[in-house]
Write a structure and sequence with these properties.
The structure is a homodimer of 465-residue chains.
Chain A lengths: L1 H19 L6 H15 L3 H12 L8 H16 L4 E13 L3 E7 L3 E3 L1 E3 L11 E8 L2 H5 L10 E4 L7 H8 L1 H12 L4 E5 L25 E4 L1 H11 L6 E6 L2 E15 L4 E11 L9 H20 L6 E8 L7 H13 L6 E6 L7 E7 L5 H11 L5 E2 L9 H8 L4 E6 L4 H4 L12 H20 L7
Parallel strand pairs in A: 5-6, 6-7, 7-8, 11-12, 11-13, 14-15
Antiparallel strand pairs in A: 1-10, 2-3, 2-9, 4-8, 5-9, 10-12, 14-16
Chain lengths: 465, 465
């Protein structure tokens, strides 16, 4: 009911604005966008791309041979699909090796627990480290631990992520992102966290973590939820619980990886471009299907649908596949630096949007543009309304993930919001595989990306204004 | 609606039979059974037992140190709960070591695939074996493979188990149980099957397999469903797919393990006993919570509830926790042999029932008794009707799992049937952990077991007649 009401409202808005003023978003542009979108819904391209990427390449851990295979795959596909330009831009980055990781409970009961190293963690000394575990209900309790109170201990944060999407992820994720620093400040030898995930599988969740200059680096790992339950139950006996942690993770000197770009060149002002992005790298546990193979497939597919529409937009549509997102938006940071400082062409980006939300169906469109162009951004949004995409009345979007760095550097952006999914059941785990992808949803998402980016590249408006 | 209709019908039947004839199942027996059942529903015992077993012991792979810990746990618990007799009966059995198992796709694409060795499989030669894979849609196609047609190849059965409970399990499971023989007859070096399971997790399903005298033993392993999907997708390219399999599994000379028994001794004829069973051993990947920690907890709890009822049944209620079920009902086979041949007291078992169905809520009661005693068995069933347990009008039950060997050897039996669950999502995987257990369902199941076994042990009837 709600969805139909939104569609009806939006249709009214489109008609009304067409009559009331001369919009730079012409009826012809809208009609062509709809034509592209309708064709996109009939296409298997997005499905074929995600199937191909996960089957032929698999994971794409930044800096590894698989990362290179992923870039070669993306460039080959974009060339085969007839993109006008396909190129790479270098990104320096310290290669991380996951190595092996094991955790045994040695007292009061004996168990092999399922863990994974957190991304960029150091390893343990060879032979591992055995220590009593000290439980903290959540990150903020760990932060309050007194210096030396955890000397020779393993800190453990047991909070289970609430199933509230990004909100729950952000809150529980503090333990992953900053827990090693807090634990080390209190003297801990290592930190173990309950996985930042909403499932009950023995597939622990990795993810990025941070060290701080001047604070001892300690190994950091995540337990699967069932293993964290087991540890919690063992701790309830009130006896000391001892864990043996062994990890061989380590980082290397910087290597070069690359952001991969592909362009459908604009007919009138090709230097200017709408940038639609995703990240090509992934963690190494699954095949990087949801995170972010879907995004890669959606934005590549969207650009191809524009090409197949037979009419170039006036400005370019550029696909950007960011490198080393997982380790902390490294490819995006370098992109901003290089295009601000070296190429000085950062302002040629008209508008940016990223897809890094797995397999959720797009249900809303949120602009983040200048005050004058907002009405045009909303008109673009209204064209999407009949496809079940509501335009949010906010104007604060900065772009998701990598793209947020570009947004913060001044690029106008739109965010495309999704239906809630079970994304955080699989996120950063071995379970991030093709079977989890909703092919209808990503086909829809590619159609939405194609329509919005075509219109944004064709319409004569400055979104910074 | 249906459930209420059943309850109403059953209540009528109870009243009617009470009036129409002098039943050996007296109103006092029924009332006492209901008293026991009502107390059982209020108890946390079943929940506490399964939590304790999985926390303090974990898996119980037959013949391992954990198997011994499991037996010690069970005997200690039964003694602490005041069982009259607790003892072990030896079972010889060839110890199996899982060792390590890895599978790489080496061409046309490179992937590390998630596998587990099937139980009792041999390993590969050291360094592994690399061979082209030949896909079969299902077991019956593999059986038809010509001799030598798979020489130097790895056979792969890709059938996905239908989500139809035991029916789907039995059908798809042929590949697991007998695939290695069929593959070896056609010359294969190894067999890989898609896991016999209904989930989409990277947690492959182990389970028993068989070799045949005179047929070469080959290594056998199962892929997780997402990994089988990936292999299927790679095979669709039509190029040779090469796998490198390395497994260090091996069996040893027989060791001794034990069936564990505990008894609530009958007040009049203690040699005679109702036998309620489960298997104490488990596979080693999870903590053996569903398979068969729930059964262990349910039957131990049921006996304790009878004890707590304050009135001994005339004949004993005996809990039997079978050894080495997973490797092929080895403890049960020895129990039948020993009690038929050595002790010659097999006929003292009045009636048997096993729980090896995970966390499903009991919804029906199926007798397998002599023609004369059938009406009494049904009367017992009718007492369970108000608790949502329908008595089936069949009379063919032999007992589940281990107990089926006793049923086939002449023991009267009842089967307790469960609501469909997602049991085969977790069965024989690392995901068989405490969080999957429905504590309300197993509390209900223990109440049903307590009521039925109390009545069966107290009523003056010969269930073989």
């Amino acid at each position: 009911m709600k969805k139909f009401a939104l569609i009806a409202l939006a249709s009214m808005a489109v008609s009304f604005s067409s009559v009331a003023q001369e919009s730079p978003l012409t009826q012809e542009m809208k009609d062509h966008a709809v034509k592209i979108g309708e064709a996109a819904y009939k296409s298997n391209l997005t499905k074929d791309l995600i199937t191909s990427l996960t089957t032929e390449v698999g994971h794409r851990l930044a800096g590894t041979a698989n990362d290179k295979k992923g870039r070669e795959w993306a460039m080959r596909k974009m060339r085969e699909m007839g993109f006008d330009r396909v190129w790479e831009e270098p990104v320096d980055f310290p290669l991380w090796h996951r190595g092996s990781a094991s955790l045994e409970m040695t007292a009061p009961f004996e168990h092999d627990l399922h863990i994974v190293a957190l991304g960029t963690s150091i390893g343990t000394p060879e032979g591992g480290l055995t220590a009593e575990v000290v439980q903290f209900d959540e990150y903020k309790d760990l932060v309050e631990a007194e210096p030396n109170s955890l000397d020779g201990k393993i800190a453990y944060v047991s909070l289970r992520m609430a199933k509230t999407g990004l909100k729950g992820y952000g809150y529980a994720g503090q333990a992953r992102r900053m827990g090693s620093v807090a634990a080390a400040k209190a003297g801990a030898s290592a930190i173990i966290i309950r996985s930042i995930g909403t499932d009950d599988n023995r597939t622990p969740h990795t993810g990025s973590m941070n060290y701080e200059d001047g604070v001892t680096k300690i190994p950091a790992a995540a337990l699967s939820n069932p293993d964290a339950d087991l540890l919690d139950n063992a701790l309830k006996y009130g006896e000391p619980v001892t864990l043996k942690l062994e990890m061989s993770s380590h980082s290397h000197d910087p290597v070069v990886t690359y952001n991969v770009l592909g362009e459908i060149t604009g007919s009138e002002d090709p230097e200017k471009a709408v940038l639609i992005g995703a990240h090509l790298d992934s963690w190494d546990l699954g095949t990087g299907a949801l995170d972010d193979g879907t995004g890669v497939s959606i934005v590549m597919s969207a650009a191809k649908h524009i090409l197949d529409g037979g009419k170039r937009p006036k400005r370019s549509v550029r696909v950007i596949l960011f490198a080393a997102e997982e380790e902390g938006l490294i490819g995006a940071r370098e992109y901003v630096r290089a295009h601000k400082e070296d190429h000085k062409d950062f302002d040629n980006i008209l508008l940016g949007a990223e897809w890094d939300s797995g397999t959720g169906r797009i249900i809303n469109f949120a602009p983040g543009v200048g005050p004058t162009s907002l009405s045009v951004a909303r008109e673009i949004g209204y064209v999407l309304a009949p496809y079940g995409v509501a335009t949010l009345m906010t104007n604060t979007a900065k772009g998701q993930s990598d793209m947020s760095l570009l947004g913060n550097a001044g690029m106008p952006a739109v965010n495309l919001g999704m239906e809630p999914t079970n994304y955080f059941d699989f996120h950063h785990t071995a379970n991030d595989t093709l079977d989890k992808v909703d092919m209808d949803a990503i086909t829809h998402n590619a159609a939405i990306y194609a329509m919005f980016s075509y219109m944004a590249a064709d319409v004569d408006v400055d979104f910074t204004k």
